Amino acid sequence: MTKKWWIIGILVLTVILAGFLWFSLTDSDKQDAPSPPRTGEPSQDDASGSDPGDRNAEGKDDISENIRESFSDALDSARSLFVQQDLHITALGDSLTQGVGDTTDNGGYVGILEESINQNSDTAAETVQVDNFGKRGNRTDHLLERLDNEDLQGSIREADLILITIGANDVIKVVKDNVTSSLDYEQFVEAQANYEQNLRSILEKIRELNPEASIYLLGVYNPFDKYFKDIPELNQIISDWNRISRQVLTEFDNTGFIPIRDIFEGADEDILWEDNFHPNEAGYKRMAERVLEYIREEIEE
C-alpha cells in the first residue's frame, strides 16, 4: 500500500474518531466514580429527567421486542447449564463492559450474560451475582487508578470470576494526541509499551486483591474494518494490541484471553450501534455468546 493511501485513510479516520471522541469522552467526564450498577436499574440517561410516561405505547413495544430479541440466542446457549450456586462475577473496564450502544439499557454483554444464566430453567433463581464496573472512555491508566476504589476492591475480593474489557481507548488516545499532526504507525508502536505496563499493573493489583479468581480479558476489535479495508496498518495495530494482551496474560496464573475481533469483522448483519463504533444489541449478544463459550467449564458445577 502506498503512503498516499495511508495518509488519506488516516485523515478520514481522524475525522470520524474526532467526532466519536467528543461524544464519548465528554460523556465519560460526567460519570461518577464506580459503584456497581445492577441489571434492571435505570440508566443515567433515564435518571436525568426523562419521564417514562412520555413514551408512547409503540415505543414501549419496540423496547420490549428488542429485549426479547437480545436475549433469545444467549438463552438458547445457556439452557441445560448447571452453574455453581452463589457465583460472583466482577466485570471491569470501558464502554464495552458498561454496555454503551445497548438501547435496552440492560448492560450490554454483561447484562445478557447475567440474564442468560439466571433465567435458565435448569438453575435456581439468582444463581449468579454480577457487579458491572464498566465506565465509558476508560483507558488502562484510568482503570488502574480506579482499582483504588473501595467498592471495586470489595467486589474483586469476593469474585469467583473477573471479566475485563480494556485497550480500545488506549488506541484512540494515540489518534487524539496526534489529530493535528502527522499520524503514522510508529506512534502506535511507541504507545504499546505504556499499554503493556499498565495492563501488567492492573493484573498485579487484581491478583493482590484476589489470588484465586479466574481472570478473562476480552480482546479489542477494529470497528472501521468495513470502511478501511485498504489500510492494513489499522488491522496490524489491533493485532499488536491483542498480541500484547495475550503475552501479558501468560505471566499470570488462571487467566484467559477471549477474542472478539472476528465477531465484528465481516459480520453478516449490522452489529454496530449508530456511532459505528460500539456494538448494538445484536453485537453484544454475540459477545455474550463468545464469553459464555469460554467460561462455561469454569462456572459449571
From TrEMBL:
Q: Which Gene3D superfamilies match?
A: SGNH hydrolase
Membrane-spanning ranges: 5-25
Superkingdom per UniProt? Bacteria
User: Where is the stretch described as Disordered?
Assistant: 29-63
| Keywords of this entry | Membrane, Transmembrane, Transmembrane helix
Looking at the record, the residues that make up the SGNH hydrolase-type esterase domain are 91-286
Output compositional bias ranges, type Basic and acidic residues: 52-63
What PANTHER family is this protein classified in? SPORE GERMINATION LIPASE LIPC (PTHR30383:SF27), THIOESTERASE 1/PROTEASE 1/LYSOPHOSPHOLIPASE L1 (PTHR30383)
Full protein name: Lysophospholipase L1
Q: Source species, please?
A: Salimicrobium album
